[in-house]
Design goal:
The complex is a heterodimer of chains A (379) and B (175). Chain A is 51% helix and 6% strand. Chain A contains 18 helices and 5 strands. The chains are: A mainly alpha (379), B alpha+beta (175). At the A-B interface, helix 5 and helix 18 of A face strand 1, strand 2, helix 5, helix 6 and strand 5 of B.
């Protein structure tokens, strides 16, 4: 049984995750700084970071506790297989959409995994594709019933989370990269970095892997990289992206050479890095917890469920469109709660209809779940 | 025909993704959404499942490879494990007597010659790293990989992860 240090705070746990991930995306990562006992003690947080394969690559030569070695090694094996599965499916999916005259853009997944020393170092879930909103229905129809070939595709109607003036600008700056015989369209470097930063923040930065993604993108951008375009737009979004790049530098040692940010002198809001570390070291998270419906049936668990769903300052600030600055975060968190509750209320009729339609699938039916906004958090 | 002259069965070749790592082979079963890791012995035996090679010849290959005495029992044991993992052609039958004999023989030999343990064939299931994180609910992305079937989808309010049937059998979705 791994020893659990009763005095270790969530922030301390987050620091262990940060140490395990520092420079982990590089061909020659720095020496692994954690001892086997610390890896064992922090295994749940390390696995929850989504970066088990990266950690295994660095720690495989240590005399790790058996359970840690097994979990991390299996993650590496599984991710290696998933990479091969996904690569073949991406080609098939692009072919299906191009057959009907639709040019999608691949976001996340292989678009970032290709930048790592091995594609299997980053986990895959579904295939995230952006298409023009006007083409969305046709794209969905083209992929319908083809899951055997494509796996699960998360089809985005444009990329509103990029906060660009027009999707055409995003297409104009996009690029293609070869994946076997297929030319896969991915975001331009500037949009890619911006997207990875905002995606991480929208989900409260709860996976360390996402900051590794920012690190690997920051260190992979090509000649002519235009930082001004990365942060173009209104002030809050510029502050999100700039702060995320600085976080990648401060917490994981990412190079900022391609940016005008001064890693040593530029300031982060005082609350930001601790909030990220707390997320990484959290012992539980609403994404892996019971639904609110279950909590309502068991009032003893209600306080815990609500506590887990209290928006963290990062998610709250981004959720209400605020800037990252030194102002207290409580107003943003309250604002985010109001928005979530409003969203939840709009969902109630649909949930009730679903409940009256009877149980679906195996197991207990949970018709009402927590007040969560936003899309999936897939990798 | 002596048991050791029996021919190897055929390996399954469809709906599998195979990746080689140093000292092992990883196999993902697209039909059942299962991942397996074959150690060196299992991998070598599986690579020889061509429906033509005699079992005894594979035992010789093992002997050459490991430079320790190996016989058909090892091959039968590996074949049994590969069959259980559904990595042999559908409907492959292995002679029950050979399998049970090979188990007994191996136990006895291992007790006498400890060094033979390196020959033991292993076909291990690989658990998804996401499954390790799945608690009392799952997420849409996890469900898409059939992790958390029957659990509520925490990021799809009111939906439950279900395994689909019919043409879409083998896939899962929050619905």
């Amino acid at each position: 049984m791994p020893r659990t240090d009763p005095i270790q705070s969530e922030e301390d746990g987050g620091r262990s995750v940060a140490a395990a991930l520092t420079g982990a995306w590089r061909h020659q990562p720095p020496p692994f700084p954690l001892d086997p006992q610390t890896v064992g003690d922090n295994l749940p947080a390390l696995v929850r970071s989504g970066a088990s394969s990266l950690i295994w690559r660095r720690a495989r030569d240590l005399d790790l506790p058996d359970s840690a070695a097994l979990q991390l090694r299996d993650a590496y094996r599984y991710d290696t297989l998933q990479a091969a599965v996904h690569e073949s499916r991406i080609g098939g999916t692009f072919a299906l959409l191009r057959d009907v005259g639709i040019e999608p853009i691949l976001v996340k997944g292989w678009a970032v995994a290709r930048l790592y020393p091995e594609v299997g170092l980053r986990p895959y879930e579904d295939i995230d594709l952006c298409v023009r909103p006007a083409e969305h229905a046709r794209a969905a129809a083209a992929l319908s019933g083809r899951e055997e070939e494509t796996g699960i595709v998360d089809l985005h109607k444009g990329l509103p989370e990029l906060h660009r003036e027009s999707l055409q600008m995003v297409y104009d700056r996009s690029q293609t990269r070869r994946l076997g015989d297929v030319a896969v369209r991915i975001l331009g470097d500037e949009d890619h970095l911006r997207y990875m930063c905002i995606h991480m923040l929208r989900h409260g930065a709860y996976r360390g892997l996402w900051l590794c993604d920012v690190g690997v993108v920051l260190e992979s951008v090509g000649e002519g990289f235009d930082w001004d375009y990365v942060v173009a737009g209104n002030r809050p979004q510029a502050s999100w992206v700039r702060c995320t790049a600085l976080l990648a530098h401060r917490l994981l040692g990412a190079s900022l050479d391609r940016t005008p940010i001064d890693g040593a002198a530029d300031d982060l809001p005082g609350w930001l890095a601790p909030a990220v570390l707390k997320q990484w070291g959290a012992r539980e998270h609403y994404m892996g917890s019971s639904t609110m419906a279950a909590a309502f049936r068991n009032p003893a668990g209600l306080a815990r469920a609500l506590r887990l769903r209290w928006p963290n300052p990062i998610q709250a600030t981004v959720g209400v469109g605020g800037s990252f600055n030194e102002f207290p975060r409580l107003p943003y968190q309250l604002g985010e709660c109001v928005l979530r509750s409003a969203h939840f209320i709009t969902q109630v009729p649909r949930l009730l209809r679903r409940q009256s339609a009877g149980p679906v699938g195996r197991g207990e039916h949970h018709p009402v779940t927590g007040p969560q906004r936003g899309g999936s958090s897939g990798n | 025909m002596k048991p050791t002259e029996t021919l190897m069965p055929s390996a399954r070749t469809t709906e599998l993704v195979v990746e080689e790592l140093p000292g092992e082979i990883l196999v993902y079963d697209l039909k059942r959404h299962r991942a397996h890791c074959l150690n060196r012995t299992s991998a070598l035996v599986w690579r020889h499942c061509d429906g033509r090679t005699p079992v005894s010849e594979v035992a010789e290959v093992l002997e050459d490879e490991y430079e320790v005495p190996a016989d058909a029992e090892i091959v039968w044991l590996a074949l049994d494990r590969l069959r259980k993992a559904k990595l042999l052609d559908d409907g492959t039958e292995l002679p029950a007597e050979e399998i049970s004999h090979s188990r007994r023989e191996m136990v006895q030999k291992l007790a006498v010659v400890g060094g033979l343990s390196i020959l033991l064939p292993v076909v291990a299931s690989i658990r998804s790293p996401l499954a390790a994180q799945a608690g009392s609910s799952t997420t849409n992305a996890q469900c898409n990989q059939c992790i958390g079937v029957g659990l509520p989808c925490s990021d799809r309010p009111g939906r439950i992860c279900v395994a689909r049937t019919g043409k879409q059998a083998g896939t899962c979705r929050c619905q």
